[in-house]
């Protein structure tokens, strides 16, 4: 393997690790760690789209959204599948499927609220910085499954 291919392989491994660390910080509810995973300052405006939310732009709005999610989610776990990484010199594009298991605040007397599964396809854009790969943009979109009525071969009305 020549030096160029070795560097590309190392970059892909670093981006994959940065992507995994982003989701792990969210699972742990570690807002400080999660904040450190995003591009610092406003040189390049960060953006985020959570499923069903409008576009959020700027570090303040993006990080507040994660604080809100963490405050209202007792448990969340991500199982990433279909991870694909494409890159140029200083920008990496990660697409993946987020298989999410989450639970909200518990009802009276329960240890945890009901667990809910959700399937989201996500695009994460990373930029190379002196401190490693940082998130520039995250976009999550829910996967809508066909209903049983549509699976029976009939045309939906």
Automatic annotation (TrEMBL):
Signal peptide: none
Domain of life: Bacteria
Domain SnoaL-like residue range list: 15-143
Record-linked Gene3D superfamilies: 3.10.450.50
SUPFAM superfamilies: NTF2-like
Coiled-coil stretches: none
Record-given protein name: SnoaL-like domain-containing protein
Species for this entry: Streptomyces griseus subsp. griseus (strain JCM 4626 / CBS 651.72 / NBRC 13350 / KCC S-0626 / ISP 5235)
């Amino acid at each position: 393997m020549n030096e160029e291919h070795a560097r590309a392989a190392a970059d892909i491994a670093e981006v994959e690790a940065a992507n995994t660390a982003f989701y792990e910080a969210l699972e742990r509810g570690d807002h400080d760690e999660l904040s450190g995973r995003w591009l610092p300052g406003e040189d390049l405006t960060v953006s985020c789209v959570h499923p069903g939310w409008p576009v959020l732009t700027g570090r303040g709005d993006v990080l507040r959204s994660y604080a809100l999610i963490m405050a209202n989610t007792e448990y969340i776990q991500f199982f990433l599948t279909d991870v694909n990484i494409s890159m140029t010199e200083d920008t990496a594009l990660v697409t993946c499927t987020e298989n999410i298991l989450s639970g909200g605040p518990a009802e009276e007397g329960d240890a945890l609220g009901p667990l809910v599964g959700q399937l989201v396809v996500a695009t994460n854009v990373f930029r190379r910085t002196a401190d490693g790969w940082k998130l520039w943009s995250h976009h999550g979109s829910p996967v809508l499954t066909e209903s049983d009525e549509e699976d029976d071969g009939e045309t939906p009305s």
